[in-house]
Amino acid sequence: MGNLEKINEFKNSPQVIEQLLKHGFSKSFKEGEAILNENAYVKAIPIVLSGSIRVMRTDEDGRELLLYYIIGGESCIMSFLGGIHEETSKVKAIAEENTEILFIPIDQVLALIKSYPEWLDYIFRLYHKRFEELLEVVNAVAFKKMDERLLNHIKQKCQLNNSKTIYITHEQLSTELASARVVISRLLKQLEDEGIVKLGRNKISLV
Q1: Which one-letter DSSP state was computed for residue 89?
Q2: At what angle do helices 14-23 and 106-115 cross, to 10 degrees?
Q3: Which residues make Cβ contacts (< 8 Å) with residue 143, sequence separation at least 6?
Q4: CA distances to 21, 45, 155, 188, 195 from 207, in Å
Q5: What's the mean pLDDT when you consider all of the chain?
Q6: What is the pLDDT of residues 61-90, one digit of tens each?
Q7: Is 136 exposed, middle or buried (0-12, 13-18, 19+ CB in 10 A)?
Q8: In the sheet that 203-206 helps form, which strands lie side by side, from edge to edge?
Q9: What is the pTM of this model?
């Protein structure tokens, strides 16, 4: 059942969880494995049972930008919108760590909306959260310096993994922040010189 029973909207409605488990199917993904690719049709929406997902957007030049993370008990509102409108995905989703997902077929998603207001409340809450996170991304890109964005990003990943150390390459960081690897490496060395982080081989620790 994973994190389903922890979802606030479902705590007083075990019928919703029963329907999700009845009609959904689970699948496990290894760290770094693609869950959804851009321009693919969405046939089912994901609910993260364990682990986490990072959602990315790619521009015409192939540069990527991290939009938000999806953690246990959450779903991807972009998948929901694409699925119900029979449109291709505008984002891609990658397993941030080993992740288990419950996929709910689109027809069942729509049936749940008609039968359970708790399910609709769940979707609206996620939509509101994702909208706020996207505003944060716009604000960071438009107004924050890259060193501040980098440090905030490291802190976010540490919080996501409940650890002060993350295992990641400079190349991956540059991809997630839509920057150049040489810029990220220079800023990481600067943060280390300031005593804010400690660098290791493919790992970064907050001091």
Answers
A1: -
A2: 160
A3: none
A4: 42, 38, 11, 13, 7
A5: 88
A6: 777 888 889 999 999 888 888 888 888 888
A7: middle
A8: 165-167, 203-206, 197-200
A9: 0.76
